[in-house]
Specification:
alpha+beta, 6 helices, six-stranded mixed beta sheet, disordered N terminus
């Protein structure tokens, strides 16, 4: 399937901080679009690490960011509402105060064999700090984080 998307960015990964219900919906394949107020500066496709925020506070899995689309909020909602696991009210509240948003199309979700708690992520020499929205990690660091689930 990765071949269908083209070559994965080999230099870096993006870490997405998500509410636990959204991380779980992505890993279940029920949520294939993630909205963001700010577009990540990535080449697509790029591997994403899925970090679930409080109360889970753990790395749960990965997926591929297959597309990044920025634009008018009404257009984003119309095109992606059935794939985002949000109500219209949640969508409006999230984008309050901005007129342009970003939709990340996600593919190939994979759960880790075991979640990696934040305390373990911080204890290793990766320098991991959970991002507010998203952050970039080099591929070596990302792979070290993923190996912690084994």
């Amino acid at each position: 399937m990765i071949d269908e998307l083209g070559g994965i960015d080999q230099d870096r990964m993006v870490v997405l901080s998500l509410k636990p219900r959204f991380a779980e919906a992505i890993l279940a394949g029920d949520k294939t679009v993630e909205f963001r107020r700010t577009a990540p500066k990535i080449d697509v496709p790029t591997r994403a690490l899925l970090y679930a925020t409080t109360p889970v506070r753990a790395l749960l899995g990965t997926c591929i960011v297959a597309d990044v689309q920025s634009g008018d909020l009404a257009v984003l909602w119309r095109e992606h509402r059935s794939r985002c696991a949000l109500t219209y009210h949640e969508f409006q509240r999230y984008f309050e105060g901005v007129e342009v948003g970003t939709a990340l199309t996600l593919a190939q979700p994979q759960s880790l064999s075991s979640k990696v708690p934040l305390q373990d992520l911080r204890a290793k020499p990766t320098g991991f700090r959970p991002p507010q929205s998203f952050a970039y990690v080099d591929t070596n660091t990302g792979n070290r984080l993923l190996r912690m689930a084994a």
